[in-house]
Write a structure and sequence with these properties.
about 425 residues; alpha/beta; six-stranded mixed sheet; three-stranded mixed sheet
Length: about 425
């Protein structure tokens, strides 16, 4: 018995020693940052799709941030969007919109939404999913309203953001919830200012983001629009005070594709990655590049100059890269070997995912009235006649929103074709 006690004690000592020496993700990230040159750090804080050729199988994604090969840091691949992977037609499942799934008021259903989408992103070798969209819908005609899972309810947004972020990140994919902050309309979206007092912002608009933080969300996207007259991606009040301060967000902040409007203000006020970044870099000086005139590469050569002249501190740059590397470590991206069979063009659809999408769509529908118990439809009712009205029920079927939230499905099942399949023996029932 004495020997058994000694063995158990030795095992406990080894276990305690292991815990004492284990690095946290933050410590591991900081150690890597300490080994990086300033130029290597700056290459991680802006997109640069032109460098994807250096890492086989990483082209074709909406966003790309180079890694550092000499330190074993892999690149980051990123892609739209909140309703599924936007890519080659028919290679990913078109899921219902976030707003549609939200109507079920079901945490478990939203978790399924996240895990299934996250699984498809992982199957395509994508590290960051640009989604979910979690803003409150305050403008009925808002062009991104279909993406946002909160509806008009901050509590609903809080609960469902937690569920979908948990689901996405359970697949080893970094969720990037958006569009922070107060993004309510697409009209004049690059200039409009959404003005709000702090109490209203915290009690209503911040709550979906708080839900994501509780789920451990690893990244966020700041909007193209302005907040209280400051551009969202350089609003210290929104990013530093509210999201990092009040909500305790510890992930990295990435800009929408026309969201960065400055170098020094954006860098000092909380933006970590500028997108899309560099378009055509100089071969000898990667931080110098020709970029889209509407979207200059503010975090390339201009940021290097800002560090050199003291406008932006080395500590600020280090904090940005630490947040990025921490997310890569926590998600598993840092230690994964890239599978050459998993690319942006890989077909990740499956019967199981189609069934999941069907379940999500079915649960998204709300039956308002069925006075004579006509539903569900039965093929045994020979006298049944159904009115099918409008192009959207047949040739002009709308199966999803457009823009970054769009996904082209492998096939479409319209209302009319589904009814014809359900009632094949009826004579002209429609």
């Amino acid at each position: 018995s004495t020997m058994a006690v000694v063995v158990v004690a030795a095992a406990l000592l080894l276990l305690l020693a292991g815990h004492a020496t284990a690095e946290t993700p933050e410590e591991r990230a900081a150690k890597l940052v300490s080994q990086m040159t300033l130029e290597e750090k700056l290459e991680m804080v802006h997109g640069n799709k032109s460098r994807s050729s250096e890492w086989p199988g990483t082209d074709g994604y909406v966003g790309f941030v180079p890694g550092v090969k000499r330190l074993g840091i892999p690149p980051l691949t990123m892609n739209d969007g909140p309703q599924g992977f936007r890519g080659p037609p028919g290679t990913s499942t078109q899921f219902p919109s976030g707003l549609a799934v939200a109507t079920a008021w079901d945490r478990d259903l939203m978790h399924l939404y996240g895990t299934t989408m996250g699984g498809e992103f992982r199957g395509k070798g994508c590290d960051v999913q640009f989604g979910p969209g979690v803003n409150l819908n305050r403008v009925p005609w808002g062009g991104r309203a279909f993406e946002y899972l909160a509806g008009e309810d901050p509590f609903l947004g809080h609960e469902l953001a937690y569920s979908v972020v948990s689901g996405i990140q359970s697949q080893g994919v970094i969720a990037n919830y958006k569009h922070f902050f107060l993004n309510n309309q697409e009209n004049n979206r690059h200039f409009v200012s959404n003005n709000c007092d702090e109490r209203t912002a915290v009690e209503l608009y911040l709550q979906p983001y708080v839900g994501g933080v509780k789920a451990g969300v690893l990244s966020a996207m700041c909007a193209n629009s302005r907040v209280n007259q400051s551009y969202s991606c350089e609003s210290s009040w929104a990013i530093q005070n509210l999201l990092r301060g009040v909500a305790n967000f510890s992930g990295f902040m990435l800009s929408d594709y026309q969201g960065t409007r400055s170098t020094v203000a954006a860098a000092n006020h909380g933006l970590d990655i500028q997108m899309p970044g560099c378009v055509r870099p100089d071969v000898k000086k990667p931080l110098v590049c020709d970029s889209d005139k509407l979207r200059p590469n503010y975090f390339g050569e201009p940021l290097l100059q800002a560090v050199h002249n003291g406008s932006v501190s080395q500590a600020t740059i280090d904090a940005k890269v630490t947040r990025i590397l921490r997310a890569m470590i926590v998600s598993g991206v840092m230690d994964r070997q890239r599978d050459p069979s998993k690319t942006s063009a890989t077909n990740v659809t499956s019967p199981a995912n189609h069934r999941a999408a069907f379940l999500l769509a079915m649960r998204s529908a709300v039956l308002l009235k069925d006075t004579h118990n006509v539903l569900p439809l039965s093929s045994s009712s020979k006298t049944l006649r159904v009115a099918v009205i409008g192009k959207a029920a047949s040739a002009g079927a709308i199966t999803g929103g457009g823009g970054s939230g769009s996904v082209v499905p492998a096939y479409k099942s319209t209302v009319l074709s589904a009814l014809q399949e359900k009632l094949p023996d009826h004579d002209n029932p429609f």
